Structure to design on (335 residues):
């Protein structure tokens, strides 16, 4: 999802079908990424490429190509502030969602969130692990971030609380991983302490989902290690920035953060029922209903791009990808 707090949602133009012939005649994205083909104007090329792949008949919130182009150009300055949620269907790391926040004219900080952004204030798995990854071509000076995202598919007032785990509050890039033979893990008799967001941040202590436990966290990190090793070189490892991007914020690779919906800031209020059960309901202000209906991230087989309307399989088909086998086991959080 590519969004900006001031970006209007324009009506969808349903008259122009996708031009697949144009896609066939243009250089493939894989060839450009691999450096086999050089292009001068990347944005013009990719915006034209996306325009040729639009599925105009799909309903739902959309960001038309002209609005997408305008959003990009309006933020090409040091104080630009747009963001994107990118579905990444990686063969080794598996499906995950990258939250990328613009930090300068050319760069964005990135968090990998395995199950996507939380959208249900009553979810039992409201807190998600967010792993800091490479700076892509936000100034983080504190351990706590509260950010309101305004987007094409996100509801109004949607606010995130992101907190850096104390154990990961380090300021040096991790050393190059050493390949070791896998050994059978022995469970520790002493239960590991798990860190939860402070009550002052989200008004109550939220149970942390099991995927932030030490064992599960290490499994997630191993997957991301595999992803990075594909294209890692010494300079990228030392700077934590891909070629063309600048790490001006001391972003540290694979620092683990906790990401959660800020329920109060998003318009929800706690409600205690007759049986003493505490739930979160939409608040009211001056007769106006706050909050929003829950939404869920349902994964690669269901999610569509807000720009082109394509599913992951349709992207693969348009780009001529063959023989791709994704990692299995991803399940949506629906409660």
């Amino acid at each position: 999802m590519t969004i900006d707090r001031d970006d209007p949602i324009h009506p969808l133009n349903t008259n122009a079908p996708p031009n697949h012939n144009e896609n066939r005649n243009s250089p493939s994205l894989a060839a450009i990424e691999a450096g086999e083909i050089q292009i001068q104007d990347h944005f013009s090329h990719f915006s034209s490429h996306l325009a040729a792949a639009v599925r105009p008949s799909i309903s739902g919130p959309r960001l038309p190509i002209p609005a997408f182009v305008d959003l990009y150009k309006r933020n090409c300055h040091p104080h630009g502030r747009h963001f994107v949620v990118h579905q990444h269907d990686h063969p080794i790391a598996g499906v995950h969602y990258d939250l990328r926040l613009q930090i300068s004219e050319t760069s964005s900080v990135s968090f990998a969130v395995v199950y996507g952004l939380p959208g249900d204030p009553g979810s039992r798995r409201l807190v998600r692990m967010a792993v800091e990854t490479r700076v892509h071509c936000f100034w983080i000076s504190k351990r706590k971030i509260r950010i309101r995202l305004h987007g094409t598919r996100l509801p109004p007032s949607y606010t995130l609380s992101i907190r850096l785990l104390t154990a990961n509050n380090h300021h040096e890039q991790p050393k190059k991983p050493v390949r070791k033979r896998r050994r059978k893990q022995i469970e520790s008799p002493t239960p590991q302490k798990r860190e939860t967001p402070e009550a002052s941040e989200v008004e109550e202590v939220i149970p942390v989902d099991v995927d932030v436990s030490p064992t599960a966290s290490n499994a997630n990190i191993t997957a991301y290690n595999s992803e990075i090793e594909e294209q890692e070189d010494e300079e990228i490892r030392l700077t934590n920035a891909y070629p063309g991007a600048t790490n001006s914020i001391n972003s540290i690779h694979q620092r683990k953060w906790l990401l959660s919906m800020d329920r109060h800031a998003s318009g929800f209020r706690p409600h205690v029922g007759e049986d003493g059960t505490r739930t979160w309901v939409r608040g009211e202000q001056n007769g106006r209903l706050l909050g929003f209906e829950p939404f869920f991230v349902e994964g690669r087989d269901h999610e569509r791009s807000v720009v082109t309307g394509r599913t992951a399989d349709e992207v693969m088909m348009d780009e001529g990808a063959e023989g791709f086998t994704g990692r299995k086991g991803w399940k949506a959080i629906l409660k």
Notes: The chain is about 20% helix and 20% strand. The helical segments are 20-25, 29-33, 42-51, 65-74, 199-202, 214-229, 234-239, 312-318. Confidence is low (pLDDT under 50) at residues 1-18, 195-216. The CA atoms of residues 67 and 235 lie 36 Å apart.
